[in-house]
Amino acid sequence: MSGRIVVIGVGNPLRGDDGIGPAVVEALRGRVPGDTVLAVSDGEPGRLLDLWRGADTVVVVESLRTRPARPGALHTLTPAEAAGHHRDAASTHGFGLQDCLVLADALGLLPPRLVVHAVEVADVGLGAPLSEAVRSALPALADRAEASVRRARARNGGPQETGEPGR
After folding, report:
1. What is the set of domains in the chain, with CATH numbers?
2. Where are the annotated segments for Disordered (predicted)?
3. Whether 134 contacts 119, CB under 8 Å
């Protein structure tokens, strides 16, 4: 195992609450060990597979729609739940993380450890800012992602220092 840890913020900052993934990645800069890879993705499956290739641990931060909606509610999902087995939840992306997880599983390309931290959204309209509910959830969502990185780091036996993250 390489010990490589990758955090991927999935989303589009130009689409309101869909920008939460990239916002969490920005919030993690300087808070996680320096060799943690921090990346942003639009959720396209090929790019996601490339980003996590060779990683032992992948932490994905994503926006989520549920029915009934509870904007700002946080979720931690397994790959199976995020892939669509969680009946009442769906990614805000038409083709993205869910499809990527199904494909990666079928091809044997899932990393050894993958966790999805998500927040339920209120508004993903073009040009909208983060809603108040999602903006308020940002610190707790970043804390969850950081805790996942630190747990992976401890599991890998690596140092816990903080530094400027890799890209």
Report:
1. 5-156 (3.40.50.1450)
2. 148-167
3. yes
